[in-house]
Amino acid sequence: MISNILFEYLLDQFPLGLYILDNQGRYIYTNDAYDRLLDLPREKLIMRSVHELMHDGHYDACISDIVFREKQPVSVFLNVFVDDGNTIKRVRHLVRAVPLFEPAGEISYMIGICEAVNDLNECYHEASARTMVAQSTTFHQPLTQEHRHSTQMIAVSEVMQAVLATAKNMAQVDSTVLISGASGTGKELMAEYIHRNSPRSTSRMVVVNCASIPENLLESTLYGYERGAFTGALASGKIGLIEAANTGTLFLDEINSLPLGLQGKLLRTLETKKVQRVGAVNEFSVDFRLIAATNQNLQEMVRTGLFREDLYYRLNILPIDLPSLRERREDIIPLARHYCNLFCSKYKKDIFFDDDALQRLVEYDWPGNIRELRNVIERIVVMSSQTCIFEDIVTHNLGAAPDPSPSFIERKPVPDNALIYSTMLDNHVSLQDYTERCEKAYLQYVLEKFPSTYETAKALQTTQSLVMRRKKKYNL
Which residues are within 8 A (CB) of 228 and not within 5 positions of it... i.e. 6 or more apart? Predict the structure, then answer.
């Protein structure tokens, strides 16, 4: 059992204002945070009515009246007025109150929790910023078994062994690395490999996907901003992700999606190793090592005016070109076995591939590269009910069954629109369901046709941010 003294001590450590009222609206308990909120000692609060304090001008509303009337939890905003000796300061608060009932159904007590709206906003933005950094940051810390396996570099083929040897040499210096390769070839994994083998491995690696952040937010995300820099900015300002990479590594993925207007600012940052927050006057130094990645030909983008030539040459100091999976077929079977072991451990399965199934994996062209291979293996492990995976199961999951013969296509009846729509009606397909199915199928097709979300958006005559939202919505 927790003693009353310990219980009160714990409540006094609670960062939010907390108070308890009896059924007459009188204070019977307040914690330290609530006393500081009203700037009143506890002895002047206990057994006083909330209406008395409102009449004395300490706040402008009584949430307890609503709770006692409606007999349910209530949240309201109210103003708290504090006299600092010179002026009366008004602080906006969010108050949440919960009634406690007697067995007969009447309210016996009410518990209230108060938090300043400014503190709430700052906590929200800090949590958002920390979540962004946490989700896009690799810290130098012990890896979980799953993460250790998922980030393992597997290289049996000569071409990939040569790439790893080159990358290990590059890791020892601080020069900028530009990783090129098709989607799914493991560019972020290669960046992690370089970082882990570098002198900066004791610091963090901050990962920024340039294509996933809306253009109007990209500059403030990378460089941070000063207080009042724009509408909605935090009063305290905000650190940028370049600054967060201080003493560590900054990885800019899909740098080909970086807007032209921001390319010049990045170039200056690379030349001077200084950053200037949005809305700031002065620059300050940041010590970071840059690794960039692209899934497009930057030289071709330079030629067409979509990428700055000076930035390209500043990035392309140490180039690495990752081969596609079909160029390193010797690695397919080790990768398949690696992911099979990984997902069997994760999903508590016992599965293996027979030789013909493995050979089918080797023969496939893998347009989605390692990412596609990983997804196919996970799907097989999750969906399979048998221990040994044969060739037909692999072929089915690759979606690469032999095409039907022309004669079969000729004999197959083609339903007209009326029959399709009639079937849909019978299956209760709503207009929204049908619209979303069409949107998903069309977007999937265009995403596979173009190498980046930027080009996809351009082809669909829409914005890149909308494409990213739809990708997330449909899990494409």
Answer: 235, 279
